Amino acid sequence: MDVTAERADIDKKVSGKTVCTIFADAVRNWPDRTALRWKRDGEWQQLNWREYGDHVAAATLALRDLGFGPGQFGLIMARNVPEHVIADLAIVHAGGAAISVYNTLAPEQLEYVANHSEATVAFVEDEAFLNKFLAIRASAPHLRHIVLVRGSAPEGVIRWDDLLARGRELHEAEPQMFERSWRAVGPEDTVSLIYTSGTTGPPKGVVYSHNNIIWTLESIDRTMKLEKETLISYLPLAHVAERFGSQWRGIYDGFEVWMCPDPNLLLPYLLEARPTLFIGVPRVWEKLMSGIHAGLAAEPDEAKRKMAQGAVAAAVTAYKLRRDGQPVPDELAAGVERAQPLFTMLRAKVGLDRCRIPVTSTAPCRPEVHEFWAALGMPLFEVWGMSELTGPATSVPLDDHKAPSIGVALPGVEVRLGEDGEILVRGGNVMVGYYREPAKTADIIDADGWVHSGDIGMLGPDGHFRIVDR
To answer: Where are the beta strands (DSSP E) in 118-254?
Structure first.
């Protein structure tokens, strides 16, 4: 199917759908399947999809009761905890748009986002985050309500538990109210703003419609089909990579998502969750690689140490030969095959022995990082994109691994190189625009709908795109 026909087919498949409709599908299709896991006070807790839906319904109705509704924006400052995604979905099911903000924002940066978006409600995880909002409340006139998830709420701040209790009362009194609320949300309505870092001025708010999200989910699903995966959410939800990968795709494909509130806790979460899908930025893949190398170097038995290090080195050599189209000597190939149990054990040391789909994104990986993980039987598949493209635009196909490579265009997405080699993209994943910034929108999306990425690429004879300059 050519790209024009594929885009039309995706358009037809996602017609009429919203984040609300796919969430309702998830709750209906997988009511008893675990949706979220997290640790609190040392104990693991979980929600299945039915319970997840009940929480979202309660929070949605409570927001509507506060006067929140269509056309409004809600801010969220929280780590990767269940209340973060529940609040996000409640904002959306009430007809509004959710904005997750980085927890590291200074009060003046937070004030800019609050006033630029004219957000009317904010959810904060704890008292430290609350203090940032209290510091700007007087200078953010549109911000009418603040909800505190955990901690002591001062006067004028709503407790999370009280919000949910009110929502449950409303749901019990009128059970159809929740469905009426989310069914009024349309595909072209705004679902979220993602604020990009402002290196040359204030941050810009990337506008996504519901259609942007559903279209891009359907597109990537056609090349990287996933279902019933276990995934760890640990990168900031203010970044599109985490928002798309764990939250929106988790809903679309029914993932079991483990919420890790601190990236420094990633290793124990990996060992506990043993994910089948893992999305890492290059620095994470490097740290995990270094940890395995350090473990091998610390082996006190010299014979075992040299044997294991030699097996890894041999596997790297074999991979590089295959990558470069060279024959692998039989003796080398046999040695690597005998070492497979060792490689499985090494992956298990970092909780990746079950990982079927290891993804790297947001920046290029060094060649030695690719070589190491491929040698251990787990080649990294790169996904390339940007906030303005609802996240992904290209990916390395699961049946055609290449590295370094950003892969091929997603189904229905057009990718070409400009005269200067700049990567240009057009498709249903292209953002609506920058919020309240028509001139800046026109600077990045030309009159024919092509996004000018700013990245310089090349197209190889193997059909894969590669980044040569950023």
So the answer is: 121-124, 145-148, 158-159, 190-196, 204-209, 230-233
Q: In what helix (H) or strand (E) does residue 280 lie, and over which residues does it extend?
A: strand 277-280
CA distance 100 to 79: 10
Q: What is the DSSP letter of 376?
A: T
Cα–chain-centroid distance for residue 35? 16
Query: What tens digit of pLDDT does each residue of 47-102 get?
Result: 999 999 999 999 999 999 999 999 999 999 999 999 999 999 999 999 999 999 99
Q: How many CA atoms lie within 13 A of 88 on its CB side?
A: 27
* 8 A C-beta contact, residue 230 and residue 270: no
What's the alpha-carbon Rg for the chain, to the nearest Å?
23
Question: In the prediction, which pLDDT does 198 show?
Answer: 60
Residue recorded with tokens 């008292």 = 127
CA distance 14 to 218: 8
Rounded distance between C-alpha atoms, residue 430 and residue 407, angstroms: 19
The 391-395 sheet, strands edge to edge: 277-280, 357-361, 381-386, 391-395, 408-409
Q: What is the distance between the alpha carbons of residues 195 and 77, in angstroms, rounded to a whole number? A: 13
First and final C-alpha spacing in the chain: 31
Alpha-carbon gap, residue 163 to 154, rounded angstroms: 15
Q: Which domains does the chain have, with CATH numbers?
A: 3-278 (3.40.50.12780), 282-417 (no CATH)
The pLDDT of residue 163 is 98
The CA angle 219-75-86, to the nearest 5 degrees, is: 65
Are 61 and 170 spatial neighbours (Cβ–Cβ below 8 Å)? yes
Total residue length of the chain = 470
* E strand or H helix at 318: helix 302-323
Tokens found for residue 308: 């294991």
The token pair that represents 83 in the structure block: 């209340």
Whole-angstrom CA distances from 361 to 173, 392, 464 are 46, 9, 16
Q: How far apart are CA 107 and CA 406, in angstroms?
A: 37
- pLDDT single digits (tens) 226-269: 888 999 999 999 999 999 999 999 999 999 999 999 999 999 99
231 with 278: CB under 8 angstroms?
Answer: yes
What is the pTM (predicted TM-score) of this model? 0.97
Residue type present at position 206 = V
